[in-house]
Each structure stands twice: as C-alpha cells, then as structure tokens.
Amino acid sequence: MNAAWDYFGDLYEVLPPHWCSIVLVLTSVLCGSLIGAERQVKQKAAGARTLALICVGSTIFTLASIFIAGEVADRTRITAQVVTGVGFLGAGAIIRHRGTIMGLTTGATIWTTSAIGVLVGGGYAAAGLGLTLLVVAVLFVEQWFEHLVLERCRYSKCTVVYNRDFGKTRVRILRVLDDYSIPDECWEVSPDGELEAMDIRYCHYHRAHRGLLFEIVELSGVTEMRRERAPRQVDKGLIDGNAVDG
C-alpha cells in the first residue's frame, strides 16, 4: 500500500529519470488536452491542441532545468520565467472590442494550465491531474451557477432585413451569430418581398450578448432591423455564458 501511495507524490523519488520524464510529459499532454477540450467545446480560440502544447512546454522547461543542473537543481528556478512568459501569452488572448473585454477566461485558463505543467514537471503528476479535474469542474460549474443564480439571460427577438446578394449577406450575418455562439434554433430565415428577413432570438439583458446587434447593423447589405421585446423569461443553455469572457 505504501509503495502504491508513493506514486501520488514526487515521482523523481520513485521512478528512474528516463521513465519519470516520459510519464510526466504524457501526463502534461493529458492535463492540457482535458482543459483545452472544455475550451474547444465552447468554440474558444485556445483549444485542446493549444493548451496541451502550453502544458507540455511548461513541463519540458521544468524538466530541462532539473536534468541540466543535475543534483544541484533548483526546481523552482525556472518557474518565474515560465510564469512571466505565459503571462504575456495569456494577455495576448485578451482583447477589447466595442467597449467589451473579451478573452479573460481564456487568458486565465492559459495561465492556470501553465502552472499545472510546471507542477507536473516538478514530479507531481497525480497532483497535476487532480488540479486539472478541478479546473475543468470550475469552468463548467461556475458557468452553470452564474446562469442559474446570478445573472440569467433574458431574451428578445429582432428581425434583420437584408439584400440577398446571392447569399453573401446571409453568410456575413451567420458569421456574427457564430462569433456570439447563437445556436441554429435561435434564428430563422424567411422571404421579405425582394429582400430576405432573418428572425434572431438573442439575450438583451447582458451587454456582451446584445453586442451582436451592433455588428449586424454595420454589415454590408443589411437594410433594416426591427426589434421586438419578448416577455421577461429565461431559457437555459441557448447562449454560451462565456461567449465573450472566454
């Protein structure tokens, strides 16, 4: 029992160096992929491949620091440099768009994934896996909690009238809807004389969600937008709550 429990601690004290490095790198790939899968499901810029590489890179830097310095290695020496470097990478994922800050959750996730990679590289694979599951749980549960308790979405309907332009205008509008994670069941297209109209169901309560209206009205080919206030109600799961903070 004690021998099995040793594998939940520092693997450098249990495994030979070459096997230890292989296990740690594979563990960091798994950790980064699990966190990145959640981001990719929500169609964020940093997906499974990106976060897997970030986690592996942090692990490799830590391993290099340990193996190159040998027995006199300070496992914390490289940590400060990784934190600084990945901090710039995470900051690059955060942008300001039309008065809204986008990418905060993704930037924080990049930073956290790097921290897990450093921990794994330091020999604590089990702790890295445990923290990975905790991060994934936070990303899922906190979003559910925010929608259910704190700030529920409230929906309205608007009708966008536009020139067909051989289907080009509709594609431009759909691109905006994809950017705001509006599902297919929330929009419908119908003819409007020589033009075409699209009914869109959107959240008017959150500033970040209703920002899609500002982008749609500026599209080439859009001639009119009619907004209709819907009853105050909440529909769960129609719009991604992290559409702009992630």
Structure in words:
The chain has two domains: 2-149, no CATH class; 155-228, 2-Layer Sandwich (Alpha-Beta Plaits). The chain is 54% helix and 15% strand. The chain contains eight helices and six strands, in the order H-H-H-H-E-E-H-H-E-H-E-E-H-E. It has helices at residues 2-6, 17-41, 48-69, 79-92, 104-121, 125-150, 168-179, 207-217, and strands at residues 95-97, 100-102, 155-162, 187-192, 195-203, 222-228. The strands form two sheets. The protein has a four-stranded antiparallel β-sheet, with helices on one face. Strands 1-2 form a two-stranded antiparallel ribbon. The longest helix is centred in the middle third of the chain and has 26 residues, at 125-150. The radius of gyration is 23 Å and the shape is elongated.
Quaternary arrangement of the chains shown? single chain
**Residue-averaged pLDDT:** 79
Tell me the strand order in the biggest sheet: 4-5-3-6
Helix content: 40-55%
Tally of alpha and pi helices: 8
Q: What tags apply to this protein structure?
A:
two-stranded antiparallel sheet; Alpha-Beta Plaits; 246 residues; four-stranded antiparallel sheet; 2 domains; disordered C terminus; alpha+beta
Which helices and strands appear, and what pairs or packs with what?
Blueprint: H1 2-6, H2 17-41, H3 48-69, H4 79-92, E1 95-97, E2 100-102, H5 104-121, H6 125-150, E3 155-162, H7 168-179, E4 187-192, E5 195-203, H8 207-217, E6 222-228
